[in-house]
Amino acid sequence: MIDPTIAILLAEPSILVVGGCGFVGYHLVRQFVEEEKFSSIYVLSRSATESKNHISSVKYYSGDITDFNAIELLIQQIKPTVIIHTASSSPITGSPHEYHKVSIIGTKNLLSLAKKSSYTYAFIYTSLSTIAKGYSHIDLDEDCELANSNPKAPSYARAKADAEDIVLRANTPSLDHTRALDYCGYLATGALRFPIIYSTHNTATLPTYLLLVKNK
């Protein structure tokens, strides 16, 4: 017999945006708020308390994805059906150690907990086009070699490429995701490779470019 709680939650999907106070995360949250399909929208961010990138009707939680036990408690509490992982250290000011912690350890933690959850059936990782191997990224497709195959590639690109590989290898979708099932052990995963983008609420790319122009 299907747990009635699971049936209700899957009929009214909820979404957790990890890193939802960041640039990409903020804009995704804003779009999800406008989409009436989702019953609840949650954000997990290290900067949730002090960030100004808040949107009304969204519930914000402070947390670090490298803290497995704390994140496990949160996922058990909010029971997200979809997780969007946008958390990332700065490609400009971060260190190889930070990239490994957030992109590798943090991603593994989230995937492990998502797969253990009876409610979570989808996991999306926001990747980058710049994880492709080399510097000339012209006419590439999804099967191109990645930066993690080149030990001399920037550590940020290698860590993001490793994380994408981890996410895609975790793909174990249910045979029928349209039914109200217990999704423990099942997880449909995917990655979105964004190009370099800029817009409002960008606290990394635009300020850096403006500083370069100012100092030229």
Explain what this protein looks like in three dimensions:
With 216 residues, the protein is α/β, with parallel strands linked by helices. The protein has one domain (4-215): Rossmann fold (3-Layer(aba) Sandwich), CATH 3.40.50.720. Helices cover 36% and strands 15% of the residues. It is built from 6 helices and 6 strands. It has helices at 4-11, 23-34, 68-78, 96-116, 155-169, 205-215, and strands spanning 14-18, 40-45, 59-62, 82-85, 122-128, 188-194. It has a 6-stranded parallel sheet, sandwiched between helices. β5, α5 (155-169) and β6 (188-194) form a beta-alpha-beta unit. The termini are far apart. The mean pLDDT is 84.
Per-chain topology:
Layout: H1 4-11, E1 14-18, H2 23-34, E2 40-45, E3 59-62, H3 68-78, E4 82-85, H4 96-116, E5 122-128, H5 155-169, E6 188-194, H6 205-215
Parallel strand pairs: 1-2, 1-4, 2-3, 4-5, 5-6
Give a short synopsis of this structure.
With 216 residues, this protein is α/β, with parallel strands linked by helices. It has a single domain (4-215), classed as NAD(P)-binding Rossmann-like Domain (Rossmann fold).
How many extended strands? 6
By CATH, the architecture is named: 3-Layer(aba) Sandwich
CATH top-level class: Alpha Beta
Q: Share of helix among residues?
A: 25-40%
- What series of H and E elements makes up the topology? HEHEEHEHEHEH
Looking at how many chains there are and whether they match, the oligomeric state comes to single chain
Distance between the termini: 68 Å
Low-confidence stretches: none
CATH topology: Rossmann fold
Largest sheet properties: 6 strands, parallel
Output the radius of gyration. Answer: 18 Å
- CATH superfamily name? NAD(P)-binding Rossmann-like Domain
Number of separate helices: 6
Gross morphology: globular
